[in-house]
Design goal:
The protein is an alpha+beta fold. About 30% of the residues lie in helices and about 30% in strands. The longest helix is centred in the first third of the chain and has 27 residues.
């Protein structure tokens, strides 16, 4: 009878089925942790949350999983029970805190995603609980020291809470200039009808009032400039934007509310999260001056956004240099996504160092330095656009450094900060002229791997840009 009982509960004469199933579960946890370690960014300091999220927790989880497998293989059931308690507590605490910490991303407003999430976590939680009860019942004669159970339970709950908390973005670190809106914006006419797509100035510049896009010729290059702070992908509770309900992720649509037009100056007012304003003047023989303001009544957490962006057309071999990095020209290159050709970008760190770098794979680090220098928070930033090694256009950002966040980017790692200026070639046919793209951000997570959100502090943001042609008729 005893022999028959053993055969019923074992696969052949090897380990009991309950032990084999938990060995597989330990392997799944350990494998998932190892994959997480491989795909997440590194290079964070010891005291940064992402050091623990991307290195510490995966390492601990993998070690505990391996110890659990060895304990079962060596029939150290008492220790294996403590490991079972560890993973049960880890799973339950992470699931419960996710619902509390991210009530919108994992809440009823997410519709079918919410129902799917509830079904998945309920199913996984119930299955783990049943397998735990079965494992403890099957090995009921194998006692486990209470100290091990308590240690497993406490450490697992701490780990579960820690993992979830590290996925919530840090408080915003951008620095809005605040102040007051210029008086020129206070007497604009109400815009009740739509404008034509583009309106031309006498000096040849054009503006799309509805889209807040300015077109100008700078040397031999044509520029399309979007100078107003714009958020593309948001999170309502500081989690990954991938899980945000569509209405929260997109935010309110910006629309034109008022305007004032003269021969060479256009003043525009917009309604969005609160209010935005745009002042465009000059150009032709004089530098084009663009000034925009955006007021954020509350902090906004986003994955993708733009302080300003530029599309460059009509070039052949495009290059860019930055005054804060020795004016060393760097070529515009095509960038792959999510893998492929390395992207190029620039950023300012918290030690006032300005770096122009190239990623290792698409937009992911580690990053190779192309040029560097110093850029203080009070400094303006100039960058020059080249075509066939000839300077064509000088663009000045007067307020970018003063407002940019210098916190480490949670998606980039390797010292890269939340602020970024990316430049790349857009895909085109070999016989066509090159088209370049520049995005300028105070804080985003476009660099690296992930959909994490980072914050913009509530307040009034200002963007003063000057665009000056460097080509003369003799050239």
């Amino acid at each position: 009878m005893k022999e028959a009982s053993i055969k019923k509960n074992r696969i052949g004469y090897g380990l009991p089925l309950a032990s084999i199933i938990w060995m597989l579960i330990f392997a799944i946890y350990g494998g998932a942790a190892a994959i997480w370690w491989l795909i997440t960014p590194h290079g964070f300091p010891f005291n940064h949350p992402r050091f623990w999220a991307n290195f510490g927790f995966p390492l601990i989880t993998s070690i505990v999983a391996l110890l659990g497998i060895l304990a079962l293989f060596l029939s150290r059931v008492g220790f294996a029970k403590a490991v079972v308690v560890f993973f049960l507590g880890l799973t339950y605490s992470a699931f419960i805190l996710s619902l509390i910490q991210f009530p919108i991303s994992f809440g009823p407003s997410n519709g079918l995603r919410f129902l799917l999430f509830i079904l998945v976590i309920s199913g996984v939680s119930l299955l783990l609980l049943l397998l735990t009860v079965w494992f403890f019942w099957f090995h009921r004669k194998k006692t486990v020291p209470y100290v091990l159970v308590i240690v497993g339970a406490v450490t697992s709950m701490m780990a579960g809470v820690g993992i979830v908390r590290t996925q919530q973005s840090l408080p915003p670190a951008t620095v809005p200039l605040n102040g007051t809106i210029p008086t020129a914006f206070r007497n604009l006419s109400q815009s009740e009808s739509r404008f034509q797509q583009f309106i031309s100035f006498e000096n040849g510049n054009e503006i799309s009032p509805e889209d807040a896009v300015v077109q100008t010729q700078c040397g031999k290059l044509g520029l399309q400039i979007s100078p107003i702070l714009t958020f593309t992908s948001r999170s309502p509770d500081r989690f990954w934007t991938l899980f945000a309900p569509p209405t929260y992720r997109l935010g309110p649509r910006r629309y034109l509310s008022e305007h004032k037009l003269t021969d060479n100056r256009f003043l525009l007012g917009y309604i969005d999260d609160d209010r935005s304003w745009l002042d465009v003047q000059g150009g032709g023989q004089e530098p084009l001056k663009i000034e925009s303001y955006t007021n954020l009544p509350n902090p906004i957490y986003s994955h993708l956004n733009s302080y300003a962006s530029l599309i460059i057309v009509g070039g052949e071999q495009l290059e860019i240099s930055f005054s804060a990095a020795g004016d060393v020209p760097a070529k515009f290159t095509e960038a792959g996504y999510p893998f492929g050709k390395p992207a190029r970008m620039a950023y300012r760190d918290r030690s006032d160092r300005f770096l122009v770098v190239e990623a290792s794979n698409a937009e992911k680090g580690p990053f190779r330095t192309i040029a560097d220098g110093q850029l203080k928070r009070s400094d303006t930033l100039d960058f020059t656009l080249y075509n066939n090694s000839t300077p064509q256009c000088l663009i000045t950002l007067e307020d970018w450094a003063a407002q940019a966040s210098t916190q480490l980017s949670p998606t980039a790692g390797w010292g890269f900060t939340e602020n970024a200026i990316g430049f790349q070639l857009l895909p085109s046919d070999p016989n066509e002229l090159a088209t370049g793209f520049i995005y300028i951000s105070l804080a985003n997570t476009s660099t690296g791997r992930g959909f994490d959100s980072v914050g913009h502090t509530a307040g009034l943001y200002r963007n003063r840009m000057q665009v000056e042609s460097l080509k003369t008729e003799l050239d």
